[in-house]
Amino acid sequence: MSIENIEQGTLPAHIKAVVALTSWKKRINTVGLTIFNLRCVCGKDFHIVLTLAEEEFPRKERELPEDLMRMNRVGIFEILWVKKNWKSFKKILFTMQKYPSKPIISADDDCIYRFNYAAELLGHLPKDTCTCVTYWCSKYRNTNYYNTAGYATCFSSNYFNNAIRYISDRIMPFNEDDMLYLSIRIKENIQGCICLNKSYTDVAIEHDGIEPLHNMYSRRTKDERDNQIDNLVDILKMIR
C-alpha cells in the first residue's frame, strides 16, 4: 500500500482549478520553462503544483535549479513533496488528495502550451458531475470506460476519491499513469468522458527531446494494452 500521507490544503476562492505536473532528474533543469509557460497562458486563476520525490531529490529544494526556486519563492507554483519516487504515478493523485474540492488539470513537464487549455477544458466540465474533459480518448474494449490524454485532461473535483491508496509497489512495473487512471475508472465504475478531439500539436509543442518514461500507444497493440489493463484491474481489486 502507499505510505504517503498528504494533508489537505486550502486555496483562495478565486482559484478555479489546479494544474498538476511532475518531473524527474533528467527534466528538472527544463521543467521551469513549462511552469513559466503555464503561468503565462493560464493566468493567476489556476494554481500550479509540481510534485517531486524526496527519494530522487534527497536534499529537496537545495538540489533544484535556481530559476525554478526563484519562481517558487515568488509564488508562481507550489512544490508538493512525496517520499518515494512513484515516477509518473505522482502527477495527479497526490495533488487531488491535497485539493479535493478543486478540479485538477494535468500537464506534462516537456510541453509548451499554445493557449489557455486549462480554461478551455474547465469550460466544458459540467457542474456537480463526476466526469473529465480531455482532448483525446480511447475506449477500453466495448465499454464506456476511456483512457485520456495525460498532457491535458481536466478531472472534476475529487474525481478519484482517495485513490492514492492504489499507488503501491505492485503497480510500479506498469510504469504508466494513464493506464492506472483507466484501471481506477473500471474498478470504481467511473464511466464516460467529454472529448474535445484536438490533436496534440494543436494544443502544445515539446521543448526537449528526452524520451518519455513510457509510450503505451506506439509500442503495443490495442489487445496488448487491454490485457495489461485487465491485469492492473485485478491488482486494484485486491486493494480495499
SSE map:
Blueprint: E1 17-22, H1 31-42, E2 46-53, H2 66-73, E3 78-82, H3 93-98, E4 104-106, E5 111-113, H4 117-123, E6 132-134, E7 137-139, E8 146-148, E9 153-155, H5 177-188, E10 194-195, H6 200-203, E11 204-206, H7 216-219, H8 222-237
Helix pairs in contact: 5-8
* Mean pLDDT metric: 93
Radius of gyration: 17 Å
The number of distinct helices, counting runs of at least 4 residues, comes to 8
Spatial strand arrangement across the major sheet? 3-2-1-4-9-6-10
Count the beta strands: 11
- Helix percent reads 25-40%
Strand content: 15-25%
Question: Short summary of the structure?
Answer:
With 240 residues, this protein is α/β, with parallel strands linked by helices. 29% of the residues lie in helices and 18% in strands. Helix 1 links the parallel strand 1 and strand 2.
Describe this protein with a few key phrases.
alpha/beta; two-stranded antiparallel ribbon; Spore Coat Polysaccharide Biosynthesis Protein SpsA, Chain A
